[in-house]
């Protein structure tokens, strides 16, 4: 007689060396699915004399626990600090594996995770199912602002920005010259916009473009030794804003707008059509709300 056995779920994390004492876990260039367990965001681990420094914790308790184990193995030390770049679940739902007092984020990220966390959790449990078992929302206990923090010989310049969401943290590791940009920068993967303010996002990209750095770790996509992620993200945001604006002015409805062509250079980016259609659903209603007159209100 045979008994049915189910294999335990594991993310089988594979660190990629960025530079000495720094590793990245590459997120899958896909939307969140059961098959990938929500592991679509890049996660960064830094070594320091005080312990491991982790930037973003992934989509679930299980991921966070595997991440913590890996960070200890790579550095030979315990966890000194965890930073959360923004409140989206693929970046912050692994918090449960870490001591809350060690987790830091801007107050806007903490507020966003508190306010939207329950709805995100419902969606993640619906999509990723078993991967989410035992996952609860844990808020960072340490609020940070723009400035410099020194941890175990690493000098970290924190930038509290916005645009991808209402609050986005970017970290420049001055020790290695590496910019960890969170989801303000995407590379070879179309940006997501469910909580975006495109004009503010473009301003943040300008701020980042003025910085001096050697390597850039985007929130999604490969590490690059240039500013291609910033340029490509800028081009994407400008293109979709223009398409949506022109479609509205031509009298196209939302579904017609979602079928408009993208520039050839952007069409080949991973998930370009998928994310453009999602962006139309996010941004077109905002444009209508700004432009259409209110019913019953006198137009002067």
Walkthrough of the structure:
The chain has helices at 61-75, 89-92, 107-128, 198-209, 228-249, 254-258, 264-267, 272-291; strands spanning 16-19, 22-25, 43-46, 52-55, 79-83, 103-105, 142-143, 147-151, 154-161, 168-173, 178-186, 215-220. The chain has 300 residues and is an alpha/beta fold. The protein has a single domain (16-226), classed as 4-Layer Sandwich (Metallo-beta-lactamase, Chain A). The strands form two sheets. Strands 1-2-3-4-5-6-7 form a seven-stranded mixed sheet. The longest helix is centred in the middle third of the chain and has 22 residues, at 107-128. It is globular.
Q: CATH homologous superfamily?
A: Ribonuclease Z/Hydroxyacylglutathione hydrolase-like
- CATH top level is Alpha Beta
Main sheet record: 7 strands, mixed
Task: Output the structural class.
Answer: alpha/beta
Rg estimate, integer Å: 20 Å
The CATH topology annotation reads as Metallo-beta-lactamase, Chain A
- Give start-end ranges of low-pLDDT stretches: 1-5
């Amino acid at each position: 007689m045979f008994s049915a056995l189910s294999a335990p779920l594991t993310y089988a994390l594979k660190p990629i060396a960025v530079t000495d004492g720094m590793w990245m876990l590459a997120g899958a260039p896909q939307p969140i699915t059961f098959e990938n367990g929500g592991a679509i965001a890049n996660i960064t681990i830094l070594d320091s004399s005080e312990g491991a420094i982790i930037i973003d914790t992934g989509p679930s308790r299980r991921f966070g626990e595997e991440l913590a184990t890996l960070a200890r193995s790579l550095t030979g030390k315990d966890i000194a600090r965890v930073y959360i770049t923004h409140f989206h679940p693929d970046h912050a739902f692994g918090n449960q594996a870490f001591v809350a007092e060690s987790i830091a984020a801007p107050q806007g990220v903490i507020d966003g995770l508190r306010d939207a966390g329950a709805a995100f959790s419902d969606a993640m449990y619906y999509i990723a199912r078993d991967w989410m078992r035992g996952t609860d929302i844990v808020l960072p206990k340490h609020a940070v602002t723009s400035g410099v923090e020194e941890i175990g010989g690493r000098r970290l310049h924190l930038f509290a920005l916005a645009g991808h969401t209402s609050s986005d943290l970017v970290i420049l590791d001055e020790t290695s010259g590496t910019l960890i940009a969170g989801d303000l920068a995407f590379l070879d993967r179309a940006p997501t916009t469910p909580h975006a303010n495109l004009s503010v996002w473009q301003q943040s990209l300008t701020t980042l473009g003025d910085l001096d750095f050697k390597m850039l770790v985007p929130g999604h996509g490969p590490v690059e030794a240039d500013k291609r992620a910033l340029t490509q993200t800028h081009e994407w945001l400008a293109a979709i804003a223009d398409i949506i604006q022109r479609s509205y002015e031509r009298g196209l409805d939302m579904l017609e707008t979602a079928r408009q062509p993208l520039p050839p250079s952007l069409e080949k980016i991973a998930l370009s059509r998928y994310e453009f259609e999602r962006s139309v659903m996010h941004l077109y209603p905002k444009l209508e709300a700004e432009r259409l007159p209110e019913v019953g209100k006198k137009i002067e």
